[in-house]
Amino acid sequence: MNRLSFEPGENCWRVASAERFALIVDGADYFRALRETLFMADRLITLVGWDFDFEIEMLPGESDDEGNAPDGFPNQIGPFLEALVDRRPELEIYLLKWSGGALIAPGRLLPTAHIKLLSPDQVHLGFDGRHPIGACHHQKIVVVDDSLAFCGGIDVTDGRWDQRDHAPNNPLRHLKNGEIAQPWHDATTVISGDAAAELGKLCRMRWARAQDSEMDEPFTPGMDRWPDSIEPDFRNIDIAISRTEPPGKNHPPITEIEALYLESIAAAQDYIYLESQYFSSDEIASAIAQRLQEPDGPEVIVINPVAAQVMLEDEAMHVTRSRFIRHLAAHDPHGRFRILYPSDSANGGIYVHAKITIFDDCFLRVGSSNIDRRSLGFDTECDVALLADSEEDRRTIRGMRDSLIAEHLGREKDEVGQEIERRDSIIAAIDALNRPTGKGLRPIHPRKETFLGSLLADTRFFDPRYRSSAAARLGLTSRHVMYGAAAALAVGAIWWSRSRRR
Fold first, then answer.
1. Would you tell me how many other CB atoms lie within 10 Å of the CB of residue 148?
2. pTM of the full structure
3. Does residue 479 carry a pLDDT above 60?
4. Residue 141 carries which DSSP code?
5. How far apart are the first and last CA of the chain?
6. Which CATH superfamily is domain 265-454 in?
């Protein structure tokens, strides 16, 4: 059996020690910890994200009549950041957002323009369009004073806040339009020490690539910025940082994350537990099929949402998933594969946005990458991972696994752990603890294919992988598309203005 190790340049970019490391599950705990950490910042805050919504409340339900949180500062993220630099003039804040977000969420243009044009000079908003056409910047990283970092799957945007019980119709989970958002399961990590400093360097590289200029801020890691609300899971443990990046002028595609996925699947002996928004990677499905055919291979449990949020995306991504489910069922002679979705207490689906891998109580990976072709060979992603050597650290990873499964089943963590140990099988334990209705894990069945779904799945229109023949190699990027769109809007505005004066 293969033994997994972290190899910089192969399955990771850097390996560095984390003084402290914790897994944060779901948005309520994340946004509280993020606020605490940002409040402590002295010199530099860097947020790198797929999207930012500057109007969201970080602590829903805790605002006073003036819109302030209990700490006395504005609850909304945009005014909160402005208040931080007003309080501490030496603080600089850099926000790097995917340029294509304006097309996906045009309603956020005005708040974004306010941050760009009207915020204090210490707040720097940049847009990242240095990608092949169709690719996106998908990393979700926050670094404070080069000393503490959050890295995972939670975007600082609308609809990401939720509590671990995922109660249906929770009024605190309201969107800006007043609607109640669907339950949302997500995860990230918080890291201090040298590993956080390396993530700070990565963010500086991303800024320089997107903006053609350096941050020009001193690099002074080593400060204590750990949030009080989070208890560390690990201390003094090595962390691997892995990336996906499309090719640039001076480098080939970076596929460290895919290599780490494939090597971890090959190394697992007892079980592989995966949470992901999608399940549409040919390479991952083939690697799992190979392990399922082994007489003594691992159990494989995949947690997905039952459906995508948008109909077109659902047709594109989950027809492919259905094909893989059929393929794996045909190559699973020992019955060791399950793909499931979590339901809430009202039998509604909980949307899974977390990107987590755990195997054999010894490996944990959390990040921005999904199990799809985009994340493994087209978009820009960042994951972090660790290997547990000591029995204490293995016990911690086992507890994380049990806690995640317990959240989905509506059970206690210890109850799940005891059932898995008693049955020597995660699948058997889930079957035993699953309730027939309400909170629980439900099987995802293959769907019948529609014409549109088959077309989108066959072409991989929404799930491409970079090819050397792509138009991007001619130098066209998403940034050029955005420049063109902006120019067209400007010309249209001038024409409209002149026509009204005639």
1. 28
2. 0.91
3. no
4. E
5. 78
6. Endonuclease Chain A (3.30.870.10)
